[in-house]
Amino acid sequence: MSTVGFDTTQVLINGHWRACASGETLPLLNPSDGSLLAQIARGNAADVDAAVAAAQAALTGPWGQLTAAERGRILLKMSALTLQRADELARLEALDVGKPVKQGRADAVAMARYLEFYGGAADKVHGETIPFANGYTALTLREPHGVTGHIVPWNYPMQIIGRSVGAALAMGNACVLKPAEEACLTALAFGHIALEAGLPAGALAIVPGLGEEAGAALSSHRGVAHLSFTGSVAVGQLIQTAAAQNTIPVTLELGGKSPQIVFADADLDAALPFLVNAGIQNCGQTCSAASRILVERPVFDEVRRRMAERYAALRVGPAMDDLDVGPVISPRQREIVQGFLAIARDTGLQVAAQATLPANLPAGGCYVPPTLLAPATADHRLAQEEIFGPVQVMIPFDGEAEALAIANGTNYGLVAGVWTRDGGRQLRMARKLHCGQVFINNYGAGGGIELPFGGVKHSGHGREKGFEALYGFSSLKTVAIKHD
To answer: Do the domain assignments include residue 454?
Structure first.
């Protein structure tokens, strides 16, 4: 209670915080030192049932009676409250996830911006009239799905809540949120913000718990009309399979093996910060992390040298020290990353640079050294599989055709970056890369709240962020009126 500032052991259902049905809790550990942060509710199917029932009632109650403009005003209040509490939210995210405080604050500001964007967009979703047969007027309406389920991961709770729950609420859905059991403090704080902003009872439920219990119950619940999931490919497949039994739509934002492609004519001074930061931000635990750096051979050695210099200067430490890189989320994730580094060592993959871990790091912390590996072949396991840690591989290429073959040559297709001054090449690459977003001479566009986000292939389907998300969180109804 003293560390967090509110009771973390409850679920939010029908506008009230209460004990979960099981009465059990789960430990929430600080990845920076292994200490106990808090206990959270171990929600289960009974809690999900109650949350869905309350959400269904809200759709025909005060929440469902609000106009789009009124919904938007509540979201704008939530945005303002989020900004007011950005420092505290940043602290919670740093403690819970292990990311440096400055990254946690950026996430809080991003969540506020999502709520602002969707608050302003709530009454801007329009239908259309359709030219049709004489004697008819045909039109389309955008309507909420109903109850939407949101299963969010531990790496960016605030950002993903903002872009999924914010958009769903803007469209008039009632949301049941299942945060990750590894990190959910800011998800719980979001519930307090929503209630303070006047969100009607039942419009938002928050049920923490294990994925195989609360998450499985939500993804298979017959009262849920749409599911949004961000996480691993394996779990995404389970969720889509469960949703298929109820024939409901799913938005899946899954893994990535995103490349940044550096041509010989690139502005290297501009590229270098993005090449490194997009790989080590949040200790590499980012679906869109630039884990592959593809570099044209004439500048490969120079890029490797300059990236190595930046790696050598990285500062690693506890999240509250607010350095460059914190810990990974858990001992299990640390073992996964260390396993990939062992594969690199056993296969002779050369370490081009590795940040130094200070000797005084907390013994219980989940630290791994940020590592740059180069050169790698395009088919190497570390160039094909998602590592989800601060590890990047560099791959040389000759010309556009080989760059495209390497970039498109994985099971993933989430994000790509292209660095070149050649305007024709920029457009050719953008059109031929198999992914959901392409960034030219930048990477991430500063967060790009307005820019639709999602992937192809094993990176998932559907789009969140931007106006496109509002279409995904609504269904289209066609009305044909015969009047002659």
So the answer is: no
